[in-house]
Design a protein that fits this description.
733 residues; alpha+beta; 6 domains; six-stranded mixed β-sheet
Amino acid sequence: MKRLPQNKNQFKKIVSSLTLISLLLIPFAPTHARFFYPNNIITDNDLHDYNSLSQTAIQTFLERENSVLAGFTDIVNGVTKKASEIIWEVARIHQINPKFLLATLEKEQGLIAKSEATQKQLDWATGYGCYGGQCNSKYKGFFHQVESSAITQNIYTERAGQFGFRVGVTTQSFDGVAVTPENQATANLYIYTPYVGGTSGIGGNHFFWRIWNQYFTDQKYPDGLVLQHAGNYYLVEKSKLRKFVSREIFLKDYSESDAYDVSAKTIAAYPAGAPIEFAKNTLVKSAETNQNFLLADYSTKRAILDDAALALLIDFHLAVAGNEIPLIANAKIGAYQDGTPITVDSKYPQGQLVKDETGQIWWLQDKIKHPVDPLVWQVNYKSQTPDGISAAAIADYLESTPIRFKSGIFVKTSDDRYYIISEGDRMRIATTDTLARVFGADKLQSAIAISDDLLSIHGAGYMIDFIDETIAQATPISTPPEPTGQFPGYHGEIIDIETENLILLQGDEAVVKVTAENTGNITWPKGEVWMQLANQGGQSSLFINAQNTFNFNESEVPPGETATFNVPVTAPQDLGHLGQSFRLQSAEGTHAQINKIFIVKPLNGSGLVVKHNLPQKIDNTARPTTITFEIVNKTTGTTWLSSKTALEIYNADGSESPFYDPNDWIRSEVAAVPLNQSRVAPGETGIFKFTLDARNVLAGEYLMKIRLRLLDQNGLVIPLNNVPAWFVPITVE
């Protein structure tokens, strides 16, 4: 096992280097707007939805694409039939989706995109009966090819156990990729064509998937868009749907107008991804390690290495209501990828919009600067006023890729090519009819005109050219309402909060200096614009006993000038990381808000848990489990008396612990006292032993609350590792 460097500066250098490398490689590198997942290419419903298209829809599609099949006919039982009629009839007779048959025709011979084809290509249209350069004449002819392809899909399904590619079984494709089909439709694709194909979408089943997603998929909304159905909200990510666990979580990062209102069929078309339980920029603490993390987005967590680093954060959410950073079980954040740690030396860890003296706008994050085009600034940042900065001040920042339009933005070029932006990629929309039909006519009207140069900073995504189905489509989103002008008078932004007085001892008094800018066109008179300090989500503050609104120091603040507020605070007896909101307000409401963490440390020190053997899981049929805690007395001048120092254990809500052992514990709430010596002086270690009795406890997840109290000092709580109580999750099996 590699150890962290013992030298703090050395560690900071390593963290800094890793920050630079990882940020260069990861955060601004776009993912594909659609995600190919070889184990789940289409669903079983995709394969068997034989009513998905009418014959008219098929014929119209072929004509629109200028396909050779639009005018092609074949003789079936003595009757001349159009290709569209053959496809439609075969689909209904054998209950195979006509979209699947069309995709197969394109995959095998390119018969959708081609306006001309050889007779051989038409005779062997779906590639059925051909292998190794030889074809069985029994299946020659367009009708036979389409019919055989449909019949074969049903044979594969009926005799699923007889083939090498089976649901849930890992099998090597002919091009050396291990695939484990998650459904029968995907297994069928590999039985028919046992190749995954190239990552460019050429050849094999990757090519089929690319055709499917260009023309036929019910997954019409690409990555980065948000959907709404029946009161539930979803994010499309890697071609899966991640459901927001609540509307409240969704609204922390999006507005209602961002979500497309879609049908149940659209929701069912996407595989389910992991639920989204936390908003972006949420602060949590690991219940197992007490490590603070910033959940920067829905997949990345960044460790916050010290309290000074925590004070750098400019805005955040807490995972649950309250002012303390909540303890979260690793099971809830374990799937998050580890991002670069945030240290006291981090530069703009959450990013900052700035403008230098040349007028260039930059996005700064972790000592990397990304140029921002003025149009991207208007759209992504809603013309937010950038902080002023000199070019010299960021000269040593590494310049990286330009900021791209956010997902869901529609753009058009001077020659009327339309695109939707998805995860940094530009996806060309073949026709304005497709754009209006799928995404809404308002999106066609509101598409932003951009230059080819600005378009080119976005990666090239796949084409969107969806067939016009006769079945019901997703209801287009309505035009977003015009701004209401909620604050017609005063406008302002909080531009700085001094962080040096955000770390306090219990009872400490301090003054926090806050600076705000008048961004409107009306002068602020003294007394009409003020600063409020309040608990997050509330109106009162733990840090202020009386009036919690404060006037600025200046006599007035003209437009473009700054106001300074001196906010006096008194640290409460509550310990830990307490969230507070600084709010710039007037009688019109709140104009700006920034959340900050105050760190309140114990006045007399704490206890340091250096060793324990608490299990993560416990068997409710086994005998009581013996637990040992070793706690170092880190207080200043307070000796712990063995008979008066209680290690207490409760349920998380303060009720009696379900693991109370009447044969071992001193009382129902007191699990142990120090056993190794009668007095534990500062610097010495107390050893606490007790048992957890899980017999007759129902299986499930429990959260234990553990704290240390001095009964001879009016029940004084001694913080453990600088928090007033430990919350430890435990699973009963």
